[in-house]
Design a protein that fits this description.
- It is flat, with a radius of gyration of 36 Å.
- A hairpin with a 7-residue loop joins strand 3 and strand 4.
- The chain is an alpha+beta fold.
- The strands form 5 sheets. It has a 5-stranded antiparallel beta sheet with strand order 2-1-5-4-3, sandwiched between helices.
- Helix content is 43%, strand content 22%.
- It is built from 17 helices and 22 strands.
Length: 659
């Protein structure tokens, strides 16, 4: 009996000690979970703030770039207008100031475009023209700009201090006036009053934690989102950050530079023509969680996670401290290969191989100038840009379709897949559905890679791309452009006539439906402001621009059309079988690609753009000359609307070509 009592007593002591240890372990576990929750909250705040900071840097850099681009376009518009006036002003008027002033005072004269005009001669004389009583005299800084314009033959922009005008910024623009032989005969200057509200970004007013500043090259504040800070020097506004500002401030740099000064985020970018600086100063205190703390919802999620961890840990401890044995089995040892090393799982090996193959395929596809795509288990994983151009999937909203969505017929896709399974490859004509719903017939070559049996490589080509009924001359220099290496105007007109001849011959003989289509579009592209770019930089820079733009146009239109340089800054592309909406998408993609280029010359960035005109053409009704002229007029309309855009024209109906 005593032994039984001692046994029961010792059992109670063991159970009590076990439950006491369980309670102590549970308390320690709760403390550890709370500490882990606080540590997770700390690192979560740091991670979220780092991501927010990176997003703010990208957003503010883009905002500074767009603001600088807007100001540059505004100043270039005034500069181009003044240059046009200077080119149209006869040099004989420089010796007759009274006659020149009388012409400017007439209704509808050039003086109505500016507040005042000023003409400077190489001898030192300056005449001022403007409304009676409203002529603004040119100060010493403006006179220095006129003298430099005459001496160097370059345009200049300088601001005119006007402390009493709190709503405008007065700017003096000066351009050289040249004789017929190219010599500088004087300088023409114009006084322009720019509203400060138009110089600031649209978001300048409502954002209290952001300051927008426009500085001259010496650091003087020309415009500020806070009008009380205008006409101060930037050194007074960056007190305490002088060294960081010296590292950031560089008027010759045209790319936006964004740096973090504690809680402040500062961006700066220079303007190419007026040596001004655009500065955005943001206080990120209101954007970061380190100063505000985590939201209530985040704390609730962390508390729920902590409670779940506590329950799981308690369950594990209960199983460990309970009198019954644990139910966990021993882990099975990993399988070994012949050398005694752990063998990799087949699934992991397949995944690594797929990643390696996809990386190699991407590198290969980027170097292939043709329409190719990689399909894996029915989904398109890789595709060259030529596929998007051929099928009309252009723009940021273009989705990535599946092969079943591309094929016009499900039965046709099943037939191709059966051929691939039986033979390992397929070659023949298929019908694909474009994004706009039209159906296009292409020559397809598909094969299954030996190392990835679940994938298929496709090469697509329009059947009429290599057809030409009229051969080109044997002398290559007769149809090849010497600057860009592209076909010239003669080769392009030859190709147009070849298309017309093929279409007329097919119409008479009744060829099958897979012949070259008789309808399509003609795209005419013209580089904007090439002459001004040659004067501002050099002719070498202009030639570089022409070659690069030609390569861009060729890369975007190669799978569906024939491109040529017609001469000067003009390019043309024939797009057979392409609808007008599809051609407009191609033209807009070209405009966007050229605008994103932004080449650099002499340490300054320049914005380049093209204007595109498009007409729908019928080979059985229109002649090549009519189509090229109509596309040229449409391109002129795009320039008239403001450039860097696409305009659609129309070919005047003509009698049948058979006459």
């Amino acid at each position: 009996m005593r032994n039984i009592s001692n046994t029961l007593s010792s059992s109670r002591v063991t159970s009590a000690s076990r439950w006491g240890g369980f309670r102590m372990a549970l308390v320690a576990q709760v403390v550890l979970v709370l500490a882990a929750m606080l540590l997770c909250a700390f690192f979560l705040v740091r991670a979220l703030d780092a991501r927010t900071q990176a997003q703010l840097v990208v957003h503010q850099t883009q905002e500074a770039d767009l603001w600088a681009r807007m100001l540059t376009a505004r100043m270039e518009a005034h500069q181009r207008l003044l240059t046009s006036i200077a080119e149209g002003m006869h040099t004989s008027l420089l010796d007759n100031p009274a006659v020149l002033d009388a012409l400017m005072q007439q209704d509808g004269s050039m003086l109505r475009l500016f507040d005042s005009l000023h003409v400077a001669l190489p001898a030192g004389g300056v005449t001022h023209h403007g409304a009676v009583g409203a002529v603004t005299e040119v100060d010493s800084q403006g006179m220095d700009a006129l003298r430099r314009t005459i001496a160097e033959g370059k345009p200049f922009v300088t601001h005119v201090p006007a402390m009493d005008d709190s709503q405008h910024l007065r700017v003096l623009l000066s351009v050289p006036m040249r004789r017929e032989d190219g010599r500088v005969s004087g300088a023409l200057a114009a006084m322009v009053k720019l509203p400060l509200a138009a110089l600031m970004p649209d978001a300048a007013a409502p954002l209290r934690n952001v300051q927008y500043m426009l500085l001259d090259r010496d650091g003087l504040v020309l415009a500020h989102s806070d009008v009380m800070q205008r006409w101060k020097n930037i050194s007074n506004l960056v007190a305490g950050h002088e060294n960081a500002w010296q590292a950031l401030s560089n008027p010759s740099a045209a790319n936006a530079d964004t740096q973090q000064w504690g809680h402040f985020l500062v961006s700066r970018v220079g303007l190419p023509l007026p040596q001004w600086q655009v500065v955005i100063w943001r206080d990120t205190t209101a954007d970061l969680l380190v100063d505000q703390g985590l939201p209530v919802r985040v704390w609730a999620a962390l508390a729920a996670g902590a409670a779940l961890l506590s329950v799981l840990a308690a369950a594990l401890m209960w199983g460990w401290l309970a009198p019954w044995p644990g139910r966990s089995g021993a882990a099975s040892p990993p399988s070994l290969d012949e050398d005694g090393e752990a063998a990799a799982e087949p699934g992991a090996l397949d995944y690594v191989q797929r990643l390696s193959l996809q990386a190699g395929a991407m590198a290969m596809f980027e170097a292939v100038p043709s329409a190719m795509l990689l399909e894996h288990e029915g989904r398109i994983t890789l595709a060259t840009p030529q596929v998007a151009v051929m099928l009309g999937y252009l723009g940021a909203e273009a989705e990535q379709p599946t092969m079943a969505q591309l094929f016009e017929s499900t039965a046709a896709l099943d037939e191709v897949r059966h051929t691939l399974v039986d033979l390992g490859s397929f070659e023949g004509a298929i019908e694909l559905r474009k994004k706009d719903g039209d159906v296009v017939q292409v020559e397809a070559l598909a094969w299954i890679p030996s190392q990835l049996s679940s994938a298929t490589v496709w090469r697509l080509q329009l059947p009429w791309r290599l057809r030409r009924s009229l051969p080109l001359p044997e002398n290559e220099s007769a149809w090849r452009d010497g600057l860009t290496g592209m076909p010239n105007r003669e080769a392009f007109m030859w190709g147009l006539q070849s298309w017309v001849s093929d279409s007329m011959q097919a119409e008479k003989t009744g060829q099958p439906s897979n012949r070259m289509p008789t309808q399509g579009c003609l795209l005419f592209a013209d580089l904007d402001h090439l002459g001004m770019m040659n004067e501002t930089t050099s002719r070498e820079m202009g030639n570089k621009m022409l070659r690069h733009v030609g390569r861009l146009i060729a890369s975007y239109t190669q799978p569906v059309g024939s491109v040529a340089r017609l001469g000067g800054d003009e390019f043309a592309v024939l797009l057979p079988g392409i609808s007008l909406a599809h051609a407009q998408g191609v033209g807009q993609a070209l405009c966007d690609a050229v605008w994103r280029w932004q080449p650099s010359w002499g340490g300054e960035r320049h914005w380049v753009s093209i204007s595109v005109g498009i007409v729908a053409m019928d080979a059985l009704r229109h002649t090549p000359q009519q189509a090229v002229r109509a596309a040229d007029m449409a391109c002129y309309e795009a320039k008239r609307r403001g450039r860097c855009q696409v305009a659609v024209g129309q070919i005047t109906a003509q009698p049948s070509l058979e006459t």
